[in-house]
Amino acid sequence: MKDILKPIISIEKLQTLSNEAKASILAMTTLAKSGHPGGSMSSLDLLLALYHCINIDPKEPFKHDRDRVVISHGHISPAVYSVLAMRGYFDLYDAITQFRLAGSPFEGHVEPLVPGVEWTTGNLGQGLSAACGFALECRLKSISNHIYCIMGDGEQQKGQISEARRFAVKYGLNNLTAIVDYNKIQICGNVTEIMPQNIKANYESDGWGVIQINGHDYREIFEALNKAQNIDAPVLILAKTIMGKGVSFMENKEKYHGMALTDEELMFAFKDLNYIIESENEKDINKTSPTMPDIMVGKEKKTHTLTEPEYRDNGIMHREKRKSIKENKLFATYNLNPEQYIFDFQVNKEKYYEKSTDNRSAWGDALADIARKNKDTKRNIAVFDCDLMGSVKTSEFNKILPENFFQAGIAEHHTAVCAGAISKYGIQTFFAGFGMFGLTEVYNQHRLNDINFTNLKVVLTHVGLDVGEDGKTHHCVDYIGLVNNMFGFKLIIPADPNQTYKAINYVVNQKGNWLIAMGRSKLDIIRNDNDEVFFGKDYLFEYGKVDVLKDGNAGTLYVTGTLVNTAIKVVKRLSLEGLNLRLVNIPSPLEIDTEEILRAYKTGMIFTLEDHNVKTGLGDLIAQKIVEAIGTQSSKKDTENINPKRNFKLIKFGVENYAFSGSAEDVYKTMGLDEESLIARIKKEF
Amino acid sequence: MKDILKPIISIEKLQTLSNEAKASILAMTTLAKSGHPGGSMSSLDLLLALYHCINIDPKEPFKHDRDRVVISHGHISPAVYSVLAMRGYFDLYDAITQFRLAGSPFEGHVEPLVPGVEWTTGNLGQGLSAACGFALECRLKSISNHIYCIMGDGEQQKGQISEARRFAVKYGLNNLTAIVDYNKIQICGNVTEIMPQNIKANYESDGWGVIQINGHDYREIFEALNKAQNIDAPVLILAKTIMGKGVSFMENKEKYHGMALTDEELMFAFKDLNYIIESENEKDINKTSPTMPDIMVGKEKKTHTLTEPEYRDNGIMHREKRKSIKENKLFATYNLNPEQYIFDFQVNKEKYYEKSTDNRSAWGDALADIARKNKDTKRNIAVFDCDLMGSVKTSEFNKILPENFFQAGIAEHHTAVCAGAISKYGIQTFFAGFGMFGLTEVYNQHRLNDINFTNLKVVLTHVGLDVGEDGKTHHCVDYIGLVNNMFGFKLIIPADPNQTYKAINYVVNQKGNWLIAMGRSKLDIIRNDNDEVFFGKDYLFEYGKVDVLKDGNAGTLYVTGTLVNTAIKVVKRLSLEGLNLRLVNIPSPLEIDTEEILRAYKTGMIFTLEDHNVKTGLGDLIAQKIVEAIGTQSSKKDTENINPKRNFKLIKFGVENYAFSGSAEDVYKTMGLDEESLIARIKKEF
Question: How many whole angstroms separate alpha carbon A362 and alpha carbon A368?
Fold first, then answer.
């Protein structure tokens, strides 16, 4: 057996550090009057041992070949901050005084604003998926390292973990070791009462190796960590621990899962941890000697006068310090400068289509062309599929770069997080799926990706009623609304195969999180008045730019996505009848220019058309912009300029209820979104 | 062993029906040019056997003590419709001619508009949770029956199923039998390649009994169904089957997972199924005899002239019939009149609070009072918790009605569906959680509940930045936006503990799906100008009604939720400075009266204030209403009436980015939502 991991300090020293760390955990939670001391103390020895033997360098937190640790139960942040500080990542005093202080990096749940933290968690059950993503990232980059994921036992109840387990086995992620802090206590009581679970059997049933240890015995921990590296499978270390370990009255008490100690309790805890109180009041404490059970049942007798405790050693700090940091906004900041990366994929700039096809084929083409053009020089791309590659058009990519393609099966929750994590440090990552599965089912996972500043490109090939026969469960008509609920994601809805191809060329070189949404059906190629391809050879996609497809003065019709084809026909036919609408395609609905909207507003009539919930999509965003535009202008006292030609009206055409299962054509008809219905609905307004 | 289930027809007859059903599966998918024939044929024999031995009555689809079947892999609807028709629920001809026709009940994924279908699915992995819900419903109602859930094998990859498994074991749901159609083929290939999984070991690791059978052998199926009823655990019948079973060229071919046969292939399939083609063209087919492999690789030689097939027996129908149904909108409709129920819980009408408390305590009180008042007479209530009952205040209910309280552990995805299903037939069900876990994580599950017309009341006790120290992962600031993305859910955001108590009294007697959202902090009791409690003894909550908390003419401030307390202080202080704003609380933001908005619009200045994403919450809804109100009026040519006193402006105050972890007070300050900041921001506009 290879004995790969060797602790950098002695076990005796670790034992000393353990008590100091516990004291700091308790100090920071008491000072913040909130936090999770119980689990922090049960996980502590595992963290101490781990961070003292793996390949990390506190002086270079982002060094290329570092081992990675994902903290899945992010609420044990006090333990993580304490251990990272002891390893030299930052000053422990900062963490103690700034824990859960608005503006500081030491948040309630671990944050990558803190050096040494790799991934923000807080929603339970997602850490193992992130660890899988990091393991794949390092494999793609040929980094020889190891990935650790430490989790709580309560969160083993989350289904997503089983998805991650199977993925890890399928992809042979033997560079992955999971650790469960098995303290058997969750918020509402004992895990065996709240939700009985055989964690060992669950992991083994999915093909994992399982090692059971005492999570407070450093020798056992090191032995297990080494053994895990020699097993030909991902390994779980199931570590029996004690909630509140080290403080007698806290041990095995669920109330300390999420409750900070009072000042008085803290003094007793320090004594338990062999922290001698040196304050003047020490005598009083010794004199009164309240028994532990009294404290445990909340019957502390206030017979001594401890009002403002003085903590010693690493615990020496003051409420005043915290107050001063807060008032003067003197929060710690760290130079988080990860491995630099830029995306500079070669793309096929001039390619375009003359003939009708579906947007998803254009996306598949663009992706395959990128793979071909960058095959020899690049390995910083990844594509994820959930058993839909034929429909979502990633099969060709898989043929060209099979090592960069990951088939995760029907396991979208895991996949969304895994794809997010692999993208974080410069792997351009595409997760393609139907709208319902790639976004609606996993909205929360993408929200967490957004918080983690990932570089994920979510490509939805089946959105809207255009999905047709699969029916209401599959009609994703909330993608604009969902993305608009997040703060970082950007959104592109291409109008035809050409704009799709060009948009993919654009996003492949963008950082950050993007959603690209398209319908299922074949679409006509959009052409200008001279019958030339609109998004042709020289067109470059530009985020936020609108496309004026036809001029007119009777009003403006804004449209996005699959229904652009329909809108063109509608506007042409109305034009023959003498009603000249201006037709504008909005491929970036979250980024609409105020001037454009003001221009349309002045015509007095705006229509919006979308294959999306009419309450939360394009029409909604345009309405917001109208109100905003009026407001912006009104402060200028320039009233004539903004008053519309007629009393202003906005008419929104979109999806008004769960729809039927049927051909897209028929379903559009039932919702009044077909050519004939739209012409009638528009004419009614004139 | 009890031999409880006896087939009502002979095995020989079942074998005949099997071929007829397969022919109808193929006919309806070919006619619709879409659908999932492969899995329908592998599941068929299981369905045929099941529906011919369980306690159901096609003449009385909703009979009280019926056994229930949940079809989790909803895409095998052609098989389900065929078997239900053969059992007499409706005319098979309707299903064949109307399958996937927009407007008909025979949707692509099973729909409860079809008699005999209990639950809509389509999103995979959710059926077992629904089955758990039905099992609990029947237990609460003391119905002695059995619940079945038939699933695909690919969907076993979904994590939610593991949550459902553990829940079923914890609650001893021995009246639940699951069946997996183990055809080993999913869309992209063999399940062992797409995502290797040991289904048997997975179920056993969670404490289930597993019986392995041949899913095409009726004797084995009946034996297993009976054996399952005698095992002291929930049981999985793992049934090995053949994708496309019965048609040689379809068997074990993944391409037939989701692809209909061509007309020509259909003829060959009929021959395989011993369906003799009686059309005039039969001779041609026999003459040319293309070999099966030719068809399989898509090389059918078009040497004969079959253009419009004539199907025989149950397959006799025409494209013309389908066309005529579509054109004349002659879709089948069924009298779906389930067991009638009304909610008539006794409530404590006059109770109110004089002293500050948090809304969640008022919710907990209201729920406990309802439990007390209805303890002896009612058992039609259920409350679900995911390991948060202390925080979300359902502990007291648990003490009063422990049998109606379900502790599901940290497993929100399962819980959301299970709680939805138990509510469907008249159990008033509350699922209480933090906003992030009760809604944001499980948005899609609630969307499916909405489609299933459930009676779920989702109570979020921790929404907004008010959640404070737990940080951005826990700040649920998208609940209005998420609910607005659905079409059925209604939303209440009470302003103080009194309105909370009254709102719970109101919703407990409402059908349908409702979201009730509240912050974490203690709130002052709202009082009127005479210092009387605003939502006092005589107040009754009325959905859609706004609460005018103060009159004023300088503009209107609309506010909802936790920040009502702040708004009152802000408006009072501005009033002392001579700026008189009208202050209006909006407890039902999805249902705002147009007249109210028009009135505010005319003052020229509207502010909105919310502890929610400013892009998708109250401000968004008010802006929509403003645009709508202007439009409504503009058609009246009555322009003077609607022009505002000054150039109109809407200013939205809300959450503009992911926020820090800190005390709610501090976090509000960082977002400009505290008293001082708001006063400054408002004054700037005058």
Answer: 10
- DSSP 8-state secondary structure symbol assigned to residue B437: I
Q: Are B458 and B439 in contact (CB under 8 A)?
A: yes
Q: How far apart are CA B582 and CA B588, in angstroms?
A: 18
Average pLDDT over residues B360-377: 94
Q: CA–CA separation, A113 vs A101, rounded Å?
A: 14
Q: How far apart are CA A476 and CA A464, in angstroms?
A: 5
| pLDDT tens track for B114-123 | 999 999 999 9
User: CB distance A648–B626 less than 8 Å?
Assistant: no
Alpha helices per DSSP H over A179-329: 191-194, 199-205, 218-229, 263-272, 282-288, 292-296, 319-327
Based on C-alpha coordinates, what's the Rg of chain B? Answer: 29
Contacting residues of B for A440, CB less than 8 Å apart:
443-444, 447
What DSSP state is assigned to residue A67?
-
* Phi and psi at residue B628, to the nearest 5°: -65, -45
pTM higher than the cut 0.90: yes
Contact in structure between A648 and B634 (CB atoms under 8 Å) = yes
Secondary structure, 3-state, A601-614: HHCCEEEEEEEEEC
A162–chain B nearest CA distance, Å:
6
b/e for B401-430, b at 16 or more Cβ within 10 A?
A: beebbbbbbbbbbbbbbbbbbbbbbbbbbb
Say if residue B438 is exposed, middle or buried (CB neighbours under 10 Å; 0-12, 13-18, 19+).
buried
Give the pair of three-digit tokens for residue B373: 């008042």
CB A118 within 8 A of CB A74: no
Question: Which of helix, strand or coil describes residue A251?
Answer: coil
CB B558 within 8 A of CB B606: yes
Using the 8-state DSSP alphabet, how is residue B141 labeled?
Answer: T
Q: How many inter-chain contacts (A to B, CB under 8 Å) are there? A: 356
The answer to whether residue A178 scores a pLDDT higher than 90 is yes
Beta bridge mates, B583: B550, B557
CA distance A564 to B455: 38
User: A312 near A271, Cβ under 8 Å?
Assistant: no
Q: How far apart are CA A254 and CA A262, in angstroms?
A: 16
Say how many C-beta atoms besides its own lie within 10 A of residue B477's C-beta: 32
Q: In Å, how far are B300, B572, B583, B600 from B552, measured between CA atoms? A: 79, 11, 8, 10
Tokens of A636: 């200028």
Reported as a single tens digit per residue, the pLDDT across B208-217 is 999 999 999 9
Query: Cα separation of B268 and B284, whole Å?
Result: 12
Check whether A634 has a pLDDT greater than 90.
no
Tokens at residue B159, please?
A: 């994590």
Which of A157, A170, A634 has its CB closest to that of B409? A157
- Looking at residue B596, the DSSP 8-state letter turns out to be H
For chain B, the average pLDDT equals: 90
d(CA B639, CA A643): 12
The strands making up B649-655's β-sheet, listed across from edge to edge, are B547-550, B582-585, B556-559, B605-613, B649-655
For B635, nearest residue in chain A (alpha carbons) = A647
Tokens 């009612």 belong to: B378
CB A367 within 8 A of CB A385: no
What Cα–Cα distance (Å) separates residue B542 from each residue in A449, A665, B486, B505, B587? 40, 41, 22, 11, 9
Strands B556-559 and B605-613: parallel
Please report residues of B whose CB lies closer than 8 A to that of A409: 154, 157, 186, 191, 194-195
Count other Cβ atoms within 10 Å, centred on residue A553.
10
DSSP-derived pairing of the beta strands A357-358 and A522-523: antiparallel
Q: What is the ipTM of this complex?
A: 0.93
